[in-house]
Write a structure and sequence with these properties.
4-stranded antiparallel β-sheet, 10 helices, alpha+beta, Chitinase A, domain 3
């Protein structure tokens, strides 16, 4: 037999053995590498003694910050993490001192629990509200020209005057005959009548909805006089400029407003239904007296639990809406 033919199987077996060892080693190395977790993939944002603060906690806090821009999220995340660290340190000390057994703390925790559960239920009820249709959005747009198609920016001057009831007719007459607001103010000074004035520029959606139509009918230079408990209030339209809003621009705000209104109505009806089905008995000093139980029930219904879906005043966007004129 040729000697060369006898060595070939041994060499082959040797090479196979080395290859197997190398493959096993490579497999073990890959497995070991696979066991190492990517630090970026962890949900832990920080460790505070025995506790962990997670990314989920930070994200939850971020969601509570309305109007936060995308480019602000990263900086806000770091600020929230620092606050959570401080909070966790305080909680750990509170646990050490068993403050969760303090009667006042127990009461506050229970109140918070009730608030969260009640709000969660109201949110669930509100989720049943149907989105407004395009026709409903269009109708609302057409029904509110002062807010949209005829929208104006108003330069308003407000004068709050302290006066007796018998002085008011004369004040109204003097306002009508005055050449301008400066002339009227000089008259007030000459008569030693106390007043306070202010000026502001407001868009239509920033005015009280109850007064908007009346103000929208005013022409530049006209004044509106309203009686107050202490005298009168003069509202002068010093000037205005047209700034209409198209249906496409207004659609998101109208849609949100109408949806919020439906949620509010659903929640209001649900609370009335729950009250009607429940057995409610007023006890002790809250028991119905001379005023009767009906008065108490009416007052309670007039101020139901605040809904998270309570709408803002209708307008262009939630951030643009303000309550009242804010001139004082």
């Amino acid at each position: 037999m040729n000697p060369k033919t006898q060595t070939t199987p041994r060499l082959a077996r040797g090479r196979l053995t080395l290859a197997a060892v190398a493959l096993a080693s490579t497999t073990l190395m890959l497995a070991a590498c696979g066991d190492k977790k990517d630090p970026a993939a962890t949900q832990t944002a920080a460790r505070v003694n025995k506790d962990e603060i997670t990314v989920h906690q930070i994200n939850f806090m971020l969601q509570q910050q309305r109007g936060l821009r995308q480019d602000q999220a990263e900086a806000a995340s770091h600020q929230i993490l620092e606050r959570l660290i401080d909070q966790d340190l305080a909680v750990q000390k509170a646990d050490d001192q068993k403050l969760d057994r303090d009667p006042r703390v127990v009461q506050q925790l229970e109140a918070a629990r009730r608030e969260v559960l009640a709000r969660a239920y109201l949110e669930k009820v509100g989720e049943g509200a149907a989105k407004p249709t395009q026709q409903e959005i269009q109708k609302y747009y057409e029904d509110k020209p002062a807010l949209f198609s005829d929208r104006r920016i108003y330069n308003l001057q407000e004068i709050s005057i302290e006066a007796r009831p018998d002085q008011i007719p004369q004040l109204r007459e003097r306002l009508t005959t005055s050449k301008n607001v400066a002339d009227f103010i000089e008259y007030l000074k000459s008569q030693n009548i106390k007043f306070a004035g202010n000026q502001a520029v407001r868009a239509a959606e920033q005015l009280p909805m109850a007064s908007l139509d009346a103000i929208a009918r005013m022409k530049d230079g006209q004044a509106m006089v309203t009686d107050t408990p202490t005298g009168v209030q003069v509202l002068l339209l010093a000037g205005s400029r047209s700034q209409p809003v198209s249906i496409d621009q207004a659609k998101p705000a109208i849609e949100q407003y109408l949806l919020n209104e439906r949620k509010r109505k659903l929640i209001e009806d649900e609370m009335k239904s729950l009250r009607a089905a429940a057995k409610i008995e007023y006890v002790g000093r809250f028991a119905p007296a001379a005023s009767g139980a009906a008065a108490g029930a009416s007052a309670a219904q007039a101020a139901p639990l605040e809904s998270p879906a309570a709408p803002a005043s209708p307008g262009l966007s939630s951030s643009d809406i303000t309550k009242g004129m804010g001139l004082k």
